[in-house]
Request: fold
Amino acid sequence: MLKYIKILNNLRTEITQGVLPENHQLPFEKDLCEKYNVSKMTIKKALDILVSEGLIVKKRGCGSFVKNLSPEDINRLIIANHFRGVSALYSNCKVTSKLLYFEIIPTDEITKSKLNLVPDDFVYKIIRIRYVDDIPMCIETTFMPIEIIPGLKREHALQSIYSYIQENLNLKIQSAHRTIRVRKSTAFEQEHLLLNKHDPIATVEQVAYLDNSSAFEYSVSIHHYDRFAFETVIIR
Amino acid sequence: MLKYIKILNNLRTEITQGVLPENHQLPFEKDLCEKYNVSKMTIKKALDILVSEGLIVKKRGCGSFVKNLSPEDINRLIIANHFRGVSALYSNCKVTSKLLYFEIIPTDEITKSKLNLVPDDFVYKIIRIRYVDDIPMCIETTFMPIEIIPGLKREHALQSIYSYIQENLNLKIQSAHRTIRVRKSTAFEQEHLLLNKHDPIATVEQVAYLDNSSAFEYSVSIHHYDRFAFETVIIR
DNA sequence: AAGTGGTCTAGACCACATT
DNA sequence: ATGTGGTCTAGACCACTTC
Reply:
């Protein structure tokens, strides 16, 4: 276990469990160095991650302080700071999928540009409705190049595609770019997400990357408006 | 100018201007150390920021690579990586405001908990419609504690409150927590944002912090659905 | 085996805030 | 004047990838 990860986890636990209460000043970096018997840069790295997670603020000349946040705020922040598929995100709940479509097709213009493909490249096109505890959460349309993700079958789409990528193919997911938008629902969406006519939806367009910089997924998720909230922390 | 900022800006310019084209491998950190005559940690800091901005990927044992992104993608990422008020975000456009409400009121329950106030604390309540090039973009309802932001006047609300905070009060804005949601529009919102009946809206709830860890702003923005998109990069 | 980026150190010096 | 966190260094050692 890396030192800065261990220190980070320790401090995060102290914050979430209230050992370091709201507005409480953290020990000075110098003192944390002594406590953990590490150098200043290692402490700084751990604290900087807590800053990026939105849990603390640092102020030169004064010290570091825990932000005033409710337990719910803290919980939402910790979820927001992790990139996971639906299955992992709701790991405490029953996640199921209805597979509406699973085909291998030639890439179209949009997918080609999002995934940096050439004409005649083939992609999986998968449409799934994702349920959490039997409640429909979203309709996911996913495109993946068959060259990067070989051997994908219907059974994986019914479970977790991300598990297949990470555990069977042993690939590493690095990052994702997301764009969130809003619009009116279509009749198709109303039917599958149990929406009323005129209800709105949120769309999340995502391009996800492996650690070798190749884009392996372009997806669009249509979310039920009442079951969607997106959290983020922005640092200046 | 800090060394890592200078190197960061240099490399970002090379990426956006295509000097380092798509899929191109960046020089090795060792070589960048020589080129800029700095130590390894300084180069690493600059590159790590580019990773967090979503522009490059690093792979141990191989090197660092520019992501395959269109110029539009890159532009959106750079905007997404900055926290700014509406005025600064659309600095190339004409930003105006219609002031619907400007009062000092006792804090209510929600505002009190978001801003960590005590009962009987007073806050500004400001409701504005923000126009970009005369098109209504959003309705902003803003609460700020009078103790932290003294002397705010109607004239500031008609211009940029963030400018007043930074330039007149000389306070430093550190971060913001945002929650994005979706719902149907109300008659009030339809009127002011030029929406049709049944049109949806996006809400952005924000708590913003100064660098001394105090929450100075709680705001809710109601965005026209067609003129709203939110970009983000998520790193594993 | 060689080379990459990742972690960690011990210490110098700086910018900022409080006293 | 003192003490905080921020930057930067030169170098050691490690984990991973490629050859």
Q: What stands out?
A: The mean pLDDT of chain B is 88. Residues 10 and 205 of chain B are 35 Å apart (CA to CA).
